Fold this sequence. Notes:
- By secondary structure, the chain is α/β, with parallel strands linked by helices.
- It folds into three domains: 186 residues, 3-Layer(bba) Sandwich (FAD/NAD(P)-binding domain); 137 residues, D-Amino Acid Oxidase, Chain A, domain 2, CATH 3.30.9; 59 residues, no CATH class.
- Helices cover 35% and strands 28% of the residues.
- The protein contains twelve helices and 18 strands.
- The strands form three sheets. Strands 1, 2, 8, 9, 10, 11, 17 and 18 form an eight-stranded mixed beta sheet that branches.
- Helix 7 packs antiparallel against helix 8, helix 8 packs antiparallel against helix 12 and helix 11 packs antiparallel against helix 12.
- It binds flavin-adenine dinucleotide.
- The site of flavin-adenine dinucleotide has 38 residues, from helix 1, strand 3, strand 9, strand 12 and strand 16.
Amino acid sequence: MESYDVLIVGAGPAGLTLAKELATEGVNVLAIDKKQEIGAPKRCAEGLSLDGFKRAKLKPKKEWAVQKIRGAKLYSPSGEFVEIDYGKVVGYILERKIFEKDLAREAAKKGATIKAKTEAYDFERKEKEIIAKIKEFDEEKKIRTKIVAACDGIESLTARKLGLDTTNNLKDVDSGFQYEMANIKIEDPELLHLYFGNKIAPRGYVWVFPKGKHYANVGVGIAGYESRTAKSYLDSFIRNREELSSGSIIEANAGGIPVGGLLKKMTADNLVVVGDAAHQVNPIHGGGIALAMEAAIIASEVITEAIRKENYSDSFLDEYNKKWWAIRGKALERILKIRHMVERMKDDDFEILAKNLNGEDILTLADANVAKTISIITRKLIKHPSLLKFMLKYLKAKE
Ligand SMILES: Cc1cc2nc3c(=O)[nH]c(=O)nc-3n(C[C@H](O)[C@H](O)[C@H](O)COP(=O)(O)OP(=O)(O)OC[C@H]3O[C@@H](n4cnc5c(N)ncnc54)[C@H](O)[C@@H]3O)c2cc1C
């Protein structure tokens, strides 16, 4: 039986970062992915901010950081917009298929073993270790390991099979659908375009993330419990936009986004859960690449220590929960509060915000700086007392 210190199930941004960090520390690690190609198919709009790069300890490379981003334009249902332009690069649109392969190559270079088209389907505990049952192409195998890292994304089963219930509540999942479109018209490819409104995207938004002047990821995220599909919302939107309607669809992808339900506990004996599998996604915009990678870096420190000390117990691995919540979890909890407020807004409220707030105000709101937001909206929404009262109720609530 093959034996590893750590078995990583899922080789997306979380799993590949964890594999690289552990291998760098000399940990004997295997990362497997059921896909036949690392990075493909993608289920992502591929946006990553410079702040995200920093937290993920990444530097943009020209082969996969394909489009510079300077800011964003946020549209209300009637077409009013707020423009946020920093006048300098604040992020990139990635070519994720190339990006993830690059992460995989780097992890392998450091000594990690990576296997595509290899799926974990069951686990059993034996004394202090785990025996994982995997299928490598058509061959069934058993792997002995000390720690399993569940980096298997939103459809994660690994944690549950090892006794930790990470099931998403339906109300905490958005449904995403996206086309990669060519031959469309984009005025300024250095700006993201985000469209809000309950008829356009209930509880979410439509995005156009450019990958050039005539080429973009065009997608929608809506509440997972909506009876109409995300695809039908996106198709209606595209049909009604002159700059998109005659474009060609060169790729389609769909996926769930765990935008709520942050987990307090992401460990059990011999188990650590990272990335989408642990619901580590920004509740406002649904971005999870940087958070998955940041969490993987934190997890790698705790796992390395656990291997050195030969202690794979939940109480030892609990350090990962503590560190994550101190470094990132608390901030995400505040952002979730803002999300709960925004998702109860009516179309008229979006119009008032678009008319009264500027780009900087919107950033403060999205950043969940509650004290600053209260001061801004109190000044700017004074003529709209019912919206002001509604927002203050959410912002001042303790929970
Ligand atoms: C439509 C859409 C748009 C998005 N846009 C953005 C964006 O612009 N920016 C951003 O930052 N984030 C975005 N996200 C979120 C982002 O894609 C995820 O947060 C990110 O991929 C999480 O990384 P991960 O490694 O945790 O999981 P994943 O990338 O989902 O990787 C999990 C891997 O596990 C594998 N796997 C699952 N089960 C098994 C098994 N049993 N055995 C072996 N392998 C298994 C899967 O094949 C997969 O490759 C978007 C998501 C969606 C759905």
